[in-house]
Design brief:
The chain has 276 residues and is mainly alpha-helical. The chain has ten helices and no strands. The protein has helices spanning 13-23, 31-54, 59-79, 85-109, 114-136, 147-174, 179-199, 204-227, 238-260, 267-275. Helix 2 (31-54) crosses helix 4 (85-109), helix 4 (85-109) crosses helix 6 and helix 6 (147-174) crosses helix 8 (204-227).
């Protein structure tokens, strides 16, 4: 008896790859990805301070406002069926701000030590990765093709921003490393991860998430370095000037990616983690 092909088996391999590519919800990991990611983390640090202090919204009001905007952005992100640069990066900018505000609330309103918040967010991120892997058997961002995987992805991103804020403040302020040395320290850590991946055989997914976590305190330290006054060890551009410069750079890069499609995930990249 001839077996009737199912809708999946009836598709040619190239057709299945094309269909899955359209459903992948995150960009390809290119130089543009890392540039915008660092810019977003810097904006997350300075924009939170700008709304909270410069405009006088206060920490609670700023947190409620940005949480509402983030919720709206994620609704749009979850509704689209493929990666859209403007939608995706708006969500990243907002989640960067909210991640900063979560740490600020724990530190300023609840009096939690940065040591404790850094440890707590490390455990929360580890638990998120454990739950994600136990259900999906992959932590690859090249296979964000279902609602559950996307939910795990954004939860992990939120915890990386909150963890990075706590770790950055811990190094730059509590441990008195200063903003400039903190930039060098976290930059060196990212360089070490890159070398371990390219030369020593570190797993690509492990290397990605390690670098992703470290770019948050790097960006926060850059934000503090550029915005803080010269008397506090900064460059004195202020939160307004720093936020404007970095937001302009983000808009320019996202506009380029929207027109060029340079960070669209290839079909082979989508399939490879699952085959592995």
């Amino acid at each position: 008896m001839t077996k009737t092909p199912t809708p999946t088996t009836g598709l040619r391999t190239t057709d299945r790859r094309a269909a899955r590519t359209m459903l992948n919800k995150v960009p390809e990991v290119t130089l543009y990805f890392w540039l915008i990611k660092i810019l977003c983390t810097t904006v997350g640090e300075t924009a939170a301070d700008y709304l909270n202090d410069t405009l006088g919204f206060g920490l609670t009001n700023t947190s409620l406002l940005m949480a509402g905007l983030l919720a709206a952005a994620l609704v749009v992100q979850f509704k689209v069926r493929r990666y859209v640069p403007s939608v995706y990066w708006i969500a990243v900018v907002l989640i960067s701000v909210v991640g900063t505000l979560i740490t600020d609330n724990l530190t300023d309103n609840l009096g939690m030590s940065l040591w404790i918040s850094t440890g707590a967010f490390s455990l929360a991120l580890a638990a998120t990765f454990a739950g994600w892997y136990s259900l999906e058997r992959t932590l690859s961002i090249h296979s964000i093709t279902s609602l559950r995987r996307e939910a795990f992805y954004w939860l992990a991103v939120l915890f990386t921003f909150a963890l990075g804020t706590a770790a950055g403040d811990l190094f730059g302020e509590k441990l008195n490393f200063g903003y400039g040395p903190s930039v060098l320290i976290f930059g060196a850590m990212i360089a070490a991860v890159t070398i371990a991946w390219s030369k020593l055989g570190l797993n690509a997914i492990t290397a990605f998430w390690a670098a992703y976590i470290l770019t948050r305190p790097l960006g926060a330290s850059i934000g503090d370095l550029t915005s803080q006054s010269t008397s506090n060890g900064g460059l004195g551009l202020g939160t307004t000037g720093t936020s404007f410069i970095f937001l302009t750079a983000i808009l320019a890069l996202v506009g380029y990616l929207t027109l060029s499609g340079a960070d669209q995930t290839t079909s082979d990249a989508v399939l490879e983690p699952d085959l592995a």
